[in-house]
Amino acid sequence: MTELPRLVVLISGRGSNLRALAEAIGQGRLRAAIAAVVSNRADAAGLRFAAEQGIPTRVVSHAGLARAAHSDALREAILPFDPHLVCLAGFMRLLAPSFTQAFPNRIVNIHPSLLPAFPGLDAQRQAFDYGVKISGCTVHLVDDELDHGPIVMQSVVPVLDDDTPETLAARILSAEHKTYPAAVERLLREPWAIAGRRVLFQSSQSA
Ligand code: GAR
Fold first, then answer.
1. Prediction pTM value
2. Ligand 1 centroid to residue 178 C-alpha, Å
3. What topology is assigned to 111-207 in CATH?
4. Which of 156, 162, 192, 206 is 20 to 30 A distant from 80 in Cα terms?
5. Ligand 1 mutation target, pool 11, 14, 23, 128, most atoms within 8 A of CB
6. Which protein residues are within 6 Å of ligand 1, measured from CB?
7. Domain 1-104 annotated CATH 3.40.50.170
C-alpha cells in the first residue's frame, strides 16, 4: 500500500476545521493522514480531539517569543513529521518568512471571508458590518502577508436579512468544513501550478 500524504495541522483553539479534515479522512473524501497537530495554546480544545484520535500533538507557545523565534520553534517542531502540507486551521499567529520558506507553497490556510475582502480578525463580523450580500470562505496558499497568498478554492455563502454576525459565522463555518478538505484533497491529488497569483489545476484546463 502506498503511504498517504502527511498533513500537519496548526490550530489555536476550537479545532472544528481540524475535526472536519479528520472526518473527511475517515470517510475517504480526503486521502491523507494527519501526522501531527500543533497548537500555540496549551488549552486549545482541538488538542484534546487530536489526542482522543491518537494523533501526536505538540504545543509551541508564543508567550514571550518574538514572531521569528516562535516561527523557528514551530518549524523545528513540524520538520520531524515531514509534512506534504501544513494546514492552518484557525491558527491565529503570523508566521515569519523563515517558516514560509521552509515549506514553500506547502502551507494552506482557511479564512472565513471571500478574500481579498475582509482579511484579519473577525472576518465574519467585518462582512456583516459592511453590509455585503454574499460572503464565504477562502482556502489559500500562505505567503508572508496576512491572509494573502494565491487562492486555491472559495465557497460563497449568502448573507440573509435576518442574519446576525453569529448566524452568518455559523453558516460560513459549515462551508469551511466542506471546502477545506476538498481543497486539500485537490492540492494533494491533482497536478497544479502557480501563474502569478493564480493556482491552476491541470484538470480544469480546457483541451
Ligand atoms: C475558522 O472560522 C477559520 O476560518 C478562522 O478561525 C476559525 C477557527 O475555527 N481563521 C481565521 O480567521 C484565519 N485568518 P476552528 O478552530 O473551529 O477551526
1. 0.97
2. 14
3. Rossmann fold (3.40.50)
4. 192
5. 14
6. 11, 13-17, 89-90, 110-112, 123, 147, 173, 176
7. yes
**Model pLDDT for residues 30-88, shown as the tens digit of each residue:** 999 999 999 999 999 999 999 999 999 999 999 999 999 999 999 999 999 999 999 99
pLDDT digits (tens, 9 = 90+) for 77-129: 999 999 999 999 999 999 999 999 999 999 999 999 999 999 999 999 999 99
Q: Which atom of ligand 1 is nearest to the CA of 44?
A: 16
CB atoms within 10 A of CB 105: 17
CA 150 to chain centre: 13
